[in-house]
Each structure stands twice: as C-alpha cells, then as structure tokens.
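Researcher: Last one for today. Full complex below.
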Amino acid sequence: MFAEVVSAGVPASGGLDCHLMSGCGFPAPGAEIFLFEDIFTLQLASLEFGFSKVTVLLLLGVVVIVGFFSYAFRKPKLVPRGAQNVGEVGYVFIRDGIAKETIGHGGEKFVPFLFSFFFFVWILNFFGILPGAQLPATSIFAIPVAFALIVYFTWVPLGMIKQGPIKFFTNMMFPPGVPKAMYVLLAPIELISNILVRPFTHAVRLFANMFAGHLLLATFSIAAFYLISASVIGILGSVASFAVTVALTGFEAFIQALQAYIFTLLAAVYIGSALHAEH
Amino acid sequence: MDNAAWTISSRLIAGIVLYAGLGWLISQWWGNRPALIAIGAFIGLGLSYYLIFTGLAREDAVRQGRSAQHRTQGNVGTDGKDQA
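Model: Here's the assembly. Have a good evening.
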C-alpha cells in the first residue's frame, strides 16, 4: 500500500516495479543505464547524425561554458565584480595553479587550451548530479577518449617540433642517471609507457571515475526505492540507502571537480614533457 | 615540473605488460611454459620500480639543488658577499 503510493510519483525505469515484498530480486543497474536511444537524427547529404541524451548534454555543456564566460567578460572592468570575478578566479587558477606550476617556462601559451578543458570536463562531469540531466557525459567512454586524443595529438607533434623528431623519442627512451647497460631493458618500457599507455590511462582515469560514480548513485537510489515497504528491514534499509545517496551525491560533486582538475593537470604534465626534455 | 609522480601508473602498466608479453612469447616458443609469463611480469614489475625510484630521486635532487641555490643567493643578497 505504502509502496504503491510512493511509486506513483516516481517514473518507472530500470525495473522500478520491483519491490522488496513483490518477490522479484533487487533490480541492480548494469551497463544498460549508459545506453541511450537517439532522440532525433539529422540528415546532412548522405551523413546521418544521431542525437542521444549524451549528445544533447555535450552541446548543452558547450552552450553553458561559452554563455557563462562571454557573459562574465562582456564588459571587463579593472575591479572585477560578480560573474567576471568568478571567471577571473578560474582563469588565475588555471594559469598559476596548473600552467605555470606544471609546464613552467612557456606555459602561458597553453592557458586557453587547459582552461577550456578544465571547465568543459567539469561541466560534463557535473551533469551527473544535475537534476534532470543526471548523467555525467564523461562516463561514456568515447568522450574521454576523444579528449585524451586531442591532448595526445597536441603534445606529441609539439615535442617532435621542439626537440626534433628523433631526439624527442630518444630523450623519452633514455632517462639520465641510469647505468648504460640498463637501457636495453628500460628503453622499451619508457617508450611504451609514454607513447601507448599515457593516452590510455589519461582517458580511463576520467571515464572509470565517472562511470563508477554514476553506477553507485544509481544503485543506491534504486535500493532506496526498492526497499520501501511496511517492514522494519524495508524502512531502515530504505532510509539508510537514501542517506547514502545524499552523501554520495556530495562526494560525487567533489570527485567531479577533482577529476576535471586531474585531467587538466595531466594534459599540462604531458605538454610540459614535450616542451622540456629531462636532462 | 614534478611529473615523475604522474608517470608511476603508466610505467607500472608498461613494464608489466611488456615483460609479461615477452614471457608469453618465449613460453610459446619453448612449448607452453606459462610460468615464464609470471616470471616476465615480476621482472617487468622490478624494472618499473627501478625506473620510478630513479625518476623520483632525480627530481628530488633537482628540487633540493634549486632550493639550496635560492638559500645561498638569499644570503649573498643580505651579506653582500661575492657569489661562488
């Protein structure tokens, strides 16, 4: 009875018809919560572009970022107020905290690149706890992969230009301060770790964090709903699951900002390693 | 440029995968001796650790050298003595 009243207000999705007393087991969310149907498709000549929830969130992220920062800096004043203040804090954070600190000399040129990445990744992560969106767009693996590839195809050509096409790889493969004989064993590790593993871990680090976070939130919100019933276990379990969902939402808010920061910091580390070889 | 810490994960993965793969290749060649894969993985792990530790030690040395330089320069400024 109680369960029916509550379920009336909740949209049915992901097996939400199941309840503790109704006999069916716990409808644990799986990878299917990351699959979306196309909302609409766009036909351009012979190319077909499908727009799913993820695509819409990506475009929304672009609009929010461009909108906010063009609003913030529409009439820049010497003494910033309101939105301009927020924008400048963000800019100074990226410039001093990431670009100058990590890249060092020559880092100023990459502030716009890192700035765009930080705020775009952050807003895409933030969609995970935004009511209505509730999906971190970066939990779809293709998106962090695309970002990591953009960074990869920035620092590799940059390093080949700055250090020379051959010297770039030899600088990478032969770190100083190691006995000459060890290079036979170590050089392949260094090459693989820099050229192959770096872009992979760069993408996976962001993806796995957002994927796991979204799955955790989904599991506990479904549990809170599933356990609602007129029994001691039901009430205690449901309240506990709901409390955990609230706590995890706060935790996710922290993780989202942290992962956006780490992604940007790693991009800066890679660019720094392309600009200055280890001596 | 403290990037030795950020290369730990990729060095570990690269070292283990590379030498475990090498062990697998040799085990295929010698006729299915899977223990070689484990031996390869341990060798790779050891070499990765070696790379990580030397990398971190090098950066630490650079950092200490830099701060020592700052200190002596500060003293020269106040004492007015000539630089080394």
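Chain A has one domain: 2-275. Residues 183-226 of chain A form the longest helix (44 residues).
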